[in-house]
Design a protein that fits this description.
By secondary structure, the protein is mainly beta. Helices cover 9% and strands 36% of the residues. The strands form nine sheets. Strands 4, 5, 9, 11, 13, 14 and 15 form a seven-stranded mixed beta sheet that branches. A five-stranded mixed beta sheet has the order 17-25-24-20-22. Strand 6 and strand 7 form a beta hairpin. The radius of gyration is 36 Å and the shape is elongated. The protein starts with 25 loop residues before the first strand and ends with a strand.
């Protein structure tokens, strides 16, 4: 462990993580020293100990380097066109549940039932993953057998694994109806075995291959493996002895989901219309995209011109612009409208579903049904107003973060909150009687030249008295002047 230096602010706490990554089996002990600089009396010693042990059999190659958890890719159940008996025309098939369409509209239950009555949903919800079962022992052989599960199939499901060897295991998840497995515990029964002769590699996949090819074990192989002279059937499991008191279970926690894609968007249809907005200002609009399926939903937003070309002007921006929504969850999006000129600001906001688009490409028969789900769009528009002047000020959270004293008077002279859109010129002073200068620019976005003059805005009560304005700590060095159009 190398020397590390940390700084902890006053009245704050710091959390540290110690990782234990042993390379060999055994006990490990270490002493951690904590010293405080410039304070020899603040010194601490922490004793750290850890023990490393190793299982004879273990899983490797699981997602995120997990030891016992397997999260399978989502399986999409897609309604694909099929041909009705006695007809050459393909018919589109829908799931028996209502399918949510972009905009929140749905196919009615009656229509879905009518379509389902004509034919059943063709199950296409399949996903698989391959990992390894490793025998870390140098002198022990094991027999393994996976427990049966209605949606999960392990291949090979039963077999032998020799000392120091590994065997790839492929698990396939299949579902024809919406299904979700959340940490389903699947047991792998293992037992130590001993051979009477030379160890023979065997599992049900090898056995099926031997049967299919009509392989026959030679008499020499039968003799060395201890099989009867009459000869077993091709692919039969070699005769072994089970070592007493070695039977136990390894547990693999499997998570998987299968469903038909369904989602709803709360954005108004057919268009999102922003209120009139000044040039160089920004308005925002928030909406939600809800994933009503058990499977995750990938998305990617794109802003297009009305000629279907990508628009990278920055007129509209959406965040987040890509990601995925877990099953049954909702994601909030913020669309920003930042006009820079008075012009036509109509654009098209398109949401792509990359996974569905890829599947439509791989399964052309399902493309017709997926066409309404692969993407959806909303037109976005608004009206741009040209201001007489624009103040180029840095963003300030003086109003939005609550830093302003709520007991201060507002523009009307009474105690009141400020308009959230109020522009703030933030100045920090390191003391009293210190001169602080802040510079900013004023833009004339019009085509005409005009004069300007700065004047204090007095509260109505003070202005009614007609006296001079009260003294102020602020003064403008450029009180008046002329700004040309477009400058």
């Amino acid at each position: 462990m190398h020397l590390q230096t940390f700084a902890v602010e006053s009245k704050k706490a710091a959390t540290f993580t110690v990782n234990f990554h042993p390379l060999e089996v055994g006990m490990y002990n270490h002493e951690l020293h904590l010293r405080v600089k410039q304070n020899p009396f603040e010194q601490y010693k922490l004793a750290i100990s850890g023990e490393c042990y190793q299982e004879d059999l273990m899983f490797t190659g699981l997602p995120d380097d997990s030891l016992t958890v397997l999260a399978l890719p989502d399986a999409l159940i897609l309604p694909v066109p099929v041909t009705a008996p006695g007809s050459s025309r393909p018919q589109s098939r829908l799931s028996q549940q209502d399918i949510a369409l972009p905009g929140g509209s749905t196919i009615t239950a009656a229509a879905a039932a009518a379509a389902a009555a004509a034919a059943q949903l063709v199950p296409t919800g399949v996903s698989s993953y391959t990992f390894a079962l490793v025998n870390e022992s140098h002198n022990k052989h094991f027999r393994f057998k996976w427990a049966e599960h209605p949606q999960l199939k392990f291949s090979p499901s039963v077999g032998h694994i020799h000392a120091g060897r590994s065997k790839n295991i492929t698990v396939t998840f299949t579902a024809s109806t919406p299904t979700k497995l959340d940490g389903q515990e699947i047991k792998l029964a293992i037992s130590q075995i001993s051979y009477k002769g030379e160890p023979i590699d065997w599992d049900d996949i090898l056995a099926a291959s031997m049967i299919a090819s009509g392989a026959r074990a030679s008499s020499a192989t039968r003799a060395s493996s201890g099989l009867p002279g009459s000869g077993p059937k091709p692919g039969a499991e070699p005769l072994v002895d089970l070592v007493a008191k070695t039977q136990r279970d390894l547990v693999l926690k499997v998570s998987a989901a299968a469903d038909t894609p369904k989602y709803e968007c709360s954005a108004p249809s057919p268009a999102i219309v922003f209120r009139p907005t000044m040039m160089f200002q920004t308005r925002t609009f928030t909406f939600n995209l809800t994933n009503n399926a058990l499977t995750a939903l990938d998305y990617k937003w794109q802003i297009l011109s009305m000629q279907e070309e990508p628009d990278e002007s920055g007129l509209y921006q959406i965040a987040p612009d890509a990601g995925h929504i877990p099953g049954g969850a909702s994601q909030q999006f913020t669309l920003r409208f930042s006009p820079q000129e008075v012009e036509d600001v109509t654009r098209r906001l398109v949401c792509h579903m990359p996974l569905l688009e890829q599947m439509a490409g791989r399964k052309p028969a399902a493309a017709a049904v997926l066409s309404g789900l692969m993407q959806f769009s909303r037109d976005v528009t608004g009206k741009v107003l040209r201001p007489w002047c624009h103040f180029e000020l840095p963003e300030s959270d003086y109003v939005s973060s609550g830093r302003r004293n709520p007991e201060l008077p507002g523009p009307s002279g009474v105690v009141e909150p400020l308009d959230p859109s109020t522009k703030v010129l933030d100045i920090n002073s390191l003391g009293v009687r210190v001169r602080n200068t802040k510079q900013f620019f004023v833009l004339n976005p019009t085509s005409i030249t005009y004069d300007f003059i700065w004047a204090p805005v007095l509260p109505p009560a003070v202005a009614a008295l007609g006296g001079p304005p009260p003294p102020s700590p602020f003064s403008c060095l450029t009180r008046k002047g002329t700004i040309s159009g477009g400058r």
